[in-house]
Amino acid sequence: MNLISRYILKKCLINTAMLLFAFAVIYSIVNAIPELGDVGKGSYTTGAMFVYLAALLPSYIYLLIPLAVLIGVMSTMLGLVKNSEYAIIRTSGVSLKDITKVLTIFGIIFAVFTFTLGELIAPEASHFAKLYKLNKMDQKLSTALSSGVWSKDGEQNIINIKQINSNDSSAIDGIQIFAYDDQQQLQTYTTAQSGNWDNKNHVWILKNIVQYKYLPEKIDISRVPQMSWKSSIDPSYFNVLVVSADDMPALGLMKYIKHLKHNHQATNRHEIAMWNKLLYPIACISMAFIAVGFIPNNGRNINLSSKLFLGILIGVAFFFTNKLVGYMAVIFTWNPILSATVPTFILFGIGWYVILKKEA
């Protein structure tokens, strides 16, 4: 059985890896078409475009792994059926339960790979890609608002930052700090020309500061060349301006959600993205289960290509359903945990059902 297990795992791995490579190439070509419109802006050349697309490859692969696992396992097992290898394996005493265990191990391997890729590699690569393009196109990191970035900072402060350095988010320019009291009356208004993050003391060092203190009968104006500003916002906060919530790691999302809750801001979108990140790898195991249900006992009078096509449709349907539920959950403010778990566990349940039906 160990020899047969290694043989099946090896063929599944080769087919899945080839599919991932093919999917990544197709995805890159499709995404290269709109990028051609930006070539020539600043120093964003054709070579820079290829670097940008290459840095996005881990994100593409992360999204496509469950689909590749399903098609890779199905094509492997249907190939074994077509070549009569599956019949030989079964007649040698290997049960469907044993084969299911092997494919489950394969699904778990790719689930771990998916989680690692989504937490450690893809977010960093996406962040680099977006900053690289911004830098090449001589653009500043900011929001769509011409006034810059607005955010709450604690219970009684509102801040505005005109721009963030695209190469280093620990350098900011054009800072405004509005400090209010418990009755929402403006107490101080502070402006600073620039600021840099002091990683040792975890404070911002502001330069060229002008501070207005609103007293009952007058306004005191003071100017200082430099001051420390302790804030709940650190450079990692600005990552959300570069990459979407879906591209952030679960740990980063947890930290950002905590910041949003502290400032009494909406967290639904980011909570959905976090739970999707945590549960998405399980889809690899579910896909391996579903593939078992499409294995015929022999290749006689069986249209193997139609089975493969149906399996592909299931994988694609899960991919788009998962995205659709995520978007609808944000619009209708559904429960984040249920929104993320229902599609994955429905797929998991279907996988178990087809296995039980196959064994019956």
Task: Record keyword descriptors for this entry.
single chain; 360 residues; alpha+beta; 6-stranded antiparallel beta sheet; 9 helices; 6 strands; 58% helix
Verbal overview:
With 360 residues, the protein is of the alpha+beta class. It is built from 9 helices and 6 strands; from the N terminus they run ααααββββββααααα. A 6-stranded antiparallel β-sheet has the order 1-2-3-4-5-6, with no helix packed on it. Strand 3 and strand 4 form a beta hairpin. The longest helix has 41 residues, at 96-136. The protein starts with a helix and ends with a helix. The mean pLDDT is 84.
Task: Give the proportion of residues in helices.
Answer: 55-70%
Topology as a string of helices (H) and strands (E): HHHHEEEEEEHHHHH
Query: In terms of quaternary structure, what is this?
Result: single chain
The coarse silhouette is elongated
Mean pLDDT: 84
Helix and strand composition category: alpha+beta
Number of strands: 6
The order of strands across the largest sheet is 1-2-3-4-5-6
Residues in β-strands, percent:
15-25%
Terminal Cα separation, in Å? 23 Å
Largest sheet: 6 strands, antiparallel
Helix count from the secondary structure assignment: 9
Can you tell me the residue ranges where pLDDT is under 50 for at least 5 consecutive residues?
A: none
Backbone CA Rg: 26 Å
Short description:
The protein has helices at residues 2-35, 46-82, 85-91, 96-136, 250-262, 268-279, 282-292, 304-332, 336-359; strands spanning 149-152, 157-164, 171-180, 186-198, 203-214, 219-229.
Secondary structure elements and pairings:
Elements: H1 2-35, H2 46-82, H3 85-91, H4 96-136, E1 149-152, E2 157-164, E3 171-180, E4 186-198, E5 203-214, E6 219-229, H5 250-262, H6 268-279, H7 282-292, H8 304-332, H9 336-359
Antiparallel strand pairs: 1-2, 2-3, 3-4, 4-5, 5-6
Helix pairs in contact: 1-2, 1-4, 2-4, 2-7, 2-8, 4-7, 5-6, 6-9, 7-9, 8-9
